[in-house]
Fold these 2 entries.
Entry 1:
Amino acid sequence: MTDDPEHVCADQESISLLLQSIPSEDELCRICDIFGALQSETRLKILFLLSGGGLCVKELEGALDISQPAISHSLRTLRQLDLVRVKKEGRFAVYHIADEHVHTLIDMCRKHVSEHE
Amino acid sequence: MTDDPEHVCADQESISLLLQSIPSEDELCRICDIFGALQSETRLKILFLLSGGGLCVKELEGALDISQPAISHSLRTLRQLDLVRVKKEGRFAVYHIADEHVHTLIDMCRKHVSEHE
DNA sequence: TAAACATATGAACATATGTGCATATATTTA
DNA sequence: TAAATATATGCACATATGTTCATATGTTTA
């Protein structure tokens, strides 16, 4: 015998209702892609570095022990999802965090890290 | 001729300094894994559904057009990263969002979605 | 205009990941 | 204890992803 009352499954109607409250396939897909882009040490490092201010590819190359093409590929991924933006300055391509959303996300990560001792 | 002053690359010292401000490899790895878990329509749907309250596997199965084993696999992934937790209630395994961090994350997604019209 | 520099891209390969199927485990009910 | 129910797991396969190498593009300087 158990103290806990047994769980009562919701009927199909309530479940259908629940389903309506979640984002559409399209929206989920987009969210997915964004998280996918963040599932990469390289791209996370880039975002953390850029969160301090704009940097060109050369600087990122100096900071990260990763080849230039690999960095460019990562930047493209981040660019395509509008997580970073480029501005051409002379011969350099200066990348920066796209907007406050992304800044918030990075801050969130920092907090998460610091809270886990 | 251009109005913009050309970008000036930071020297290696400043770059080394920048590097110190980003999370350690270990922490990055953990963040990576979390985002990795979120890069899945199935797992995102599960999280959105659970954000309304605890649900057992059976209910998730009724809501999602996905096989029971696939759902269990997804739940395991989420469990291992402590994004969801289980509580056994009789013969049911009731899953719920692990903590406020995760709730915040899901809310963030909802906001993101609603702000992009 | 040639050379040097900064960045981007494409193809290819190795590895990671998700899903289905079969099946194992655990709990409850008869 | 047998049968039914609820969930978990292992394996295998198809697909997705990241990285490297070679090379293309674009910009500046000599």
Note: Chain A touches chain B through 54 residues (CB under 8 Å).
Entry 2:
Amino acid sequence: MRRLPPLAAVRAFEAAARNESFTAAAAELGLTQAAVSYQVKALEERLGAPLFVRERGRARLTPLGHRLLPTLSQAFDSIEAAFTTQREEDESLLTITTTHTFANTWLAWRLGAFQMAHPELAVRMSTSNDIVDLKAGDADIAIRAGPGHWPGLETHKLFESQFTPMASPECLAAEERKLGRKLQPSDMPTAHIINPGDDWWQQWFCDNGVAPDEKALRRPGIRLDNQANEGHAAMAGQGFALLTPFLWQGDVAAGRLVVPFPESISARGWAYWLVLPPERRMVPKVKRFREWLLAVMEEARQPALSDAAMEI
Amino acid sequence: MRRLPPLAAVRAFEAAARNESFTAAAAELGLTQAAVSYQVKALEERLGAPLFVRERGRARLTPLGHRLLPTLSQAFDSIEAAFTTQREEDESLLTITTTHTFANTWLAWRLGAFQMAHPELAVRMSTSNDIVDLKAGDADIAIRAGPGHWPGLETHKLFESQFTPMASPECLAAEERKLGRKLQPSDMPTAHIINPGDDWWQQWFCDNGVAPDEKALRRPGIRLDNQANEGHAAMAGQGFALLTPFLWQGDVAAGRLVVPFPESISARGWAYWLVLPPERRMVPKVKRFREWLLAVMEEARQPALSDAAMEI
DNA sequence: AAAGGGCATAAGCTGGGCTTATGTAAACGG
DNA sequence: CCGTTTACATAAGCCCAGCTTATGCCCTTT
């Protein structure tokens, strides 16, 4: 339980003592000379002892005032330093939390460009799936997949979370060689699927009028925890994975992945979102990243999601 | 030029953070929970970053809040410590500034009794003649001789600054042996006076209808700077000195000094005064000393200044 | 003398910081 | 499962601490 004098008075005294002038202190504090005089007097009355000797039109410290000054100055210095440090750190470090998938397949590849455009900003990206850390101040900005409503948070839709089977060209070729013809959606239940237990396969079958092979769906397969890993497995020829076209357009363009059914893209109703605390939306670093990401998205979305692009 | 957040908000935050509870902080600060909530929110808005995560009916610190807390706590601790130290020192140390004379002849002999009565108080007596040090807080109380008006200071008259010739019994006897009769005031101009240059001798001569011997007054003699020294010189048999009866009553009673003309006491219009800054009059240590001194004075004055006492 | 700079003081205003009252959500206890 | 308790948020409104403005006085400077 603390017993402190009114801090406004202490502050006025400290400034006055440091400047050895009420007028100068007032200027420093953005007050009038009368205000400083008032506060100093109040503090002296509270202490029951004089802090200044008023003489010859100047105010000089009493021994008591002299003893108090250094401690108080230091205290205010450290308070100031604490907040300054915080502000500087906060201004110069942008922390983004995103899903493993988005980080791997998309953001990591372009964050460099943002960093180039804003060399004064240190950018830290961390991957996790907890949105609470935004409210807790662990990150400035989050990118998350979901239905899109987080209470008390501002969201911007980045792209629909669509999905369609993909595989490496070799894998597709092998499958078609086995069939002796071009692969059809209806062949998928018996094709080599990396993670057949994934619920989304069921939805994709349903969306595309394919009767799922119950037995096939209960095959063991591999759970890879996230789409990024499944995508990489697919590129490595491990089989088919349900992937989001937007995230893999680079790999598709480079021929590392193929999309056998560009017409058969399911949407899970989810999307990827940029999520941020609304009260921080105008903080410079947040504003810059938000604007940059939405611009890049806008630019990327047009060609990428068109059928033309998918059919490369 | 400092840039600090409002200190009331910082204080509220610090208390809330330390207690990990707004309600407890409010109790500590003597405010309502709403006030703390308001201030913390204001600080968070100012910083543009959350300091607490509100969850499950509790408030937990964010990492940022956690980083700020120790610095701020320390700062407030040291502010508190500065004022506490000052208060404790101030409460336990009574500083009295007095004249050399009064210190020597009177106060030093009785300060022990005051100290006995107030063992918790350390008493420091310093002798100097500057009254300014009271305003500068160098001393709590002053005892001074003078006409009695110090602007802005409270004064209590202790005793009139009367004076009359005194000498050692031997000295008086020698003088009377030389004369062959009892000493008369009119004999003084040619008697052995320690400091004949002292203006007060002139006044005493005048008050007692004695024609001063111009030549005698221009005798060299010894300037001893203060009455204490003159009194001691007189006791040592160096000659006659003009002394204040009140201050030497002990020595008169003990036979170390004699007062040849108890009826011929001059008053210089001055007095000895207890002087103190009115704003500190009720500070315990000041009040105690003031009351003690005035009581002792009252007690001492009655018998001491009566003619009976003087004629011992 | 006159001008200027510094602090004190009085009077009066104003909005920051408080209180009171109420809402909400979670934890608790029976 | 429901009433009770506890904790924080929020709204509305009040009040006085802390400010400003205006003035005076004193000392120094020119």
Note: Residues 21-23, 33-34, 36-38, 41, 52, 54, 56-59 of chain A lie near DNA strand C (CB under 10 Å from a C1').
